[in-house]
Protein: D-lyxose ketol-isomerase
Amino acid sequence: MKRSHVNSILRDADAFIRSFGYVLPPFAYFTPEQMARAGGQYRERGLGWDITDYGQARFDELGLFLFTTRNGRLGDLRAGRGMLYAEKIMISRRDQLSPMHRHFLKAEDIINRGGGKLVIELFAGAEDGTIDRAADVTVPVDGQLRTVQAGGRLALEPGESVTLMPGVWHAFWGEGDDVLIGEVSTVNDDAADNDFEMNIGRFASIEEDEAPQHLLVSDYATWMD
Structure:
């Protein structure tokens, strides 16, 4: 992705988020230099802007906008003490696919915060961790258990949510319009806790055609060394 495209997505995403009355925290608006000086917890916890095309350079078709507002440490989760949770706000554009994947550790509530329908395609995990293409999948939707066939789809209206436990394979996209998505989960580790069905990466490769407006989480290693 070109940095100019990333900067444009950031501006559009901020406006879309604000249109629903949701305001990002002050550190969202740090300049790159301010974020580099602040350092520490933002890099360690993976807080901030995250735009991915999964390394495929087709963001409008295969991509996701995310902003991590809070996150604990993986060590705390494993020890069962401390800050054990994370929260994100995300945008899935109309017909923009977040590809099939599972998490090894993360349990998450995916919440449609507004916009179009959020469509989620589901598969159970086989004993070896791969996709089970025959088994039904049962997940809580706002506390009510719902069962779908392998590859079945849930269409969440604004306000609805689904709980996904580790090992449940899922893909999602917006239907009818762009969707503002909330995610409340156990500690989030995007570097190691995403297992994709496709042979793709988690983060975008950035072509620096202009200066960054704000740093992405994936920029921190370069700017904060």
About this structure: The chain is about 15% helix and 35% strand. The longest strand covers residues 108-125.
